[in-house]
Amino acid sequence: xxxxxxxxxxxxxxxxxxxxxxxxxxxxxxxxxxxxxxxxxxxxxxxxxxxxxxxxxxxxxxxxxxxxxxxxxxxxxxxxxxxxxxxxxxxxxxxxxxxxxxxxx
Length: 105
Fold this sequence. Notes:
By secondary structure, the chain is α+β, with helices and mostly antiparallel strands. The chain is built from 3 helices and 4 strands. The protein is elongated, with a radius of gyration of 16 Å.
């Protein structure tokens, strides 16, 4: 299981607003929700699943702004692929929360 964080930025759109592009990209994730888990954040999107599936999904997501008129697209991708144990978004958050509670005592 891998966790991918990505930011897709459409350029050459004639406007500084990107909300419509983000919504269009997010629809691709919704169509894959039976295969991946995802979380939209104010600055990026985090996706959890099998690495091959995630990479194919990122490729589809990268194309969406072009399909909606962007002349250039910049995609930044970070992959966390831990193989010694299963790592999920939830497990990572619980681990940090546990350490914060422990430090408070």
